[in-house]
Specification:
It is a single chain. With about 230 residues, this protein is of the alpha/beta class. Helix 1 runs parallel beside helix 6 and helix 2 packs across helix 3. The chain is built from nine helices and seven strands. The protein has one domain: Vaccinia Virus protein VP39 (Rossmann fold). The chain is globular. It has a seven-stranded mixed sheet with strand order 3-2-1-4-5-7-6, with helices on both faces. The structure holds S-adenosylmethionine. S-adenosylmethionine binds next to helix 1.
C-alpha cells in the first residue's frame, strides 16, 4: 500500500464518521474540547482565533473564483460560502467520503454556486491562473507530496491572487508535536516532513510576492499574494 492509499483509507474511515470529525474540528463536542485542550493546547478563544485568522483574507463581498483544497467535510467553509452568493467556488478533495459530507451540507444549505471535484492537490485538474483565491485549511500537514502541493496551488492562482489558510506547524508546541508523531502520523492523518514557521515563510517567499505567516500554538496561518 502506498502512502497515498494509506491516507485515502484513513480519511475514508473518518469521512464515514463525518459528524465526529466536525465536532472535533469545531470544538463543539466534549471530545472536541478535550482533544483541543489536550493535544493542541487550545482554549475556546484560541480555537476560534485560528479559524477566524485563516478565513480573514476572504473578503466579505468576494465575488471572484475560489478554489478550496482540501474541503474535507466542509464544516468550516460552507457557512462562509453561504455568505458569498456571487462567488464561483470549486471544492476539491482526495476522499470522496469526506467530501460527501460537504456535498450534503451544501445541499442542506441550498448552496448552488459550488462545484465539487475529487482529485489530488499534487496534480490539480485546472489551467494555470484559473482562480482569484486559493484557500487551504488543515491540508498541507496531510498531503503526501508537499512540493507538488505548494507548486500546484500557486500555479492555478492568478497573478495578484490570494493564497491563504492554515495547517500544523512543527516546533511550536511540544505536546502537539508528540501527538502528531505518535498518533496522527501512524494513523495516516498527517504525513511528514512538517514545516516550521520559519521554513514555511521561506518556502512561501520563494513562490509569492507578499507573505504573512503567524501561529496560534501549533497552527500556522498564512496569507500570500502572488
Ligand atoms: C484534516 S482534513 C481537513 C479538511 C478541511 N479543510 C478542514 O479543515 O476541516 C484533511 C483532508 O485532506 C485530504 N487530502 C489528503 N491528501 C490529499 C491530496 N493529495 N489531495 C487532496 N486532498 C487530500 C483528506 O482527504 C482530508 O479530507
Amino acid at each position: 500500500m502506498t502512502r497515498h492509499d494509506e491516507i485515502r483509507q484513513s480519511y475514508k474511515e473518518l469521512g464515514e464518521f463525518g459528524n465526529v470529525y466536525d465536532g472535533i474540528i469545531t470544538r463543539s463536542t466534549l471530545l472536541g474540547k478535550l482533544l483541543d485542550s489536550l493535544i493542541w493546547g487550545l482554549d475556546r478563544e484560541r480555537s476560534a482565533r485560528w479559524i477566524e485568522d485563516a478565513l480573514a483574507p476572504v473578503p466579505a463581498d468576494f465575488s471572484g473564483s475560489l478554489l478550496e483544497v482540501p474541503v474535507g467535510t466542509g464544516v468550516l467553509t460552507m457557512p462562509l460560502y453561504a455568505s458569498l452568493p456571487k462567488a464561483d467556488v470549486t471544492c476539491l478533495d482526495y476522499s470522496a467520503d469526506m467530501m460527501e459530507n460537504a456535498k450534503k451540507r451544501a445541499a442542506a444549505m441550498k448552496l448552488s454556486n459550488i462545484a465539487f471535484v475529487q482529485g489530488d492537490v499534487g496534480a490539480l485538474p485546472f489551467a494555470d491562473e484559473s482562480f482569484d483565491l486559493v484557500l487551504s485549511l488543515n491540508g498541507f500537514h496531510a498531503f503526501p507530496d508537499k512540493d507538488a502541493a505548494f507548486r500546484e496551488t500557486c500555479r492555478v492562482l492568478k497573478r495578484g491572487g490570494v493564497f491563504c489558510g492554515c495547517f500544523y506547524i512543527a516546533g511550536r508546541f511540544p505536546r502537539t508535536d508528540w501527538f502528531v508523531k505518535h498518533m496522527y502520523v501512524p494513523k495516516g492523518f498527517f504525513t511528514p516532513p512538517f514545516e516550521t514557521a520559519e521554513s514555511l515563510e521561506a518556502r512561501l517567499r520563494g513562490l509569492y510576492a507578499k507573505v504573512d505567516v503567524h501561529t496560534v500554538r501549533a497552527e500556522g496561518i498564512f496569507k500570500c499574494v502572488k
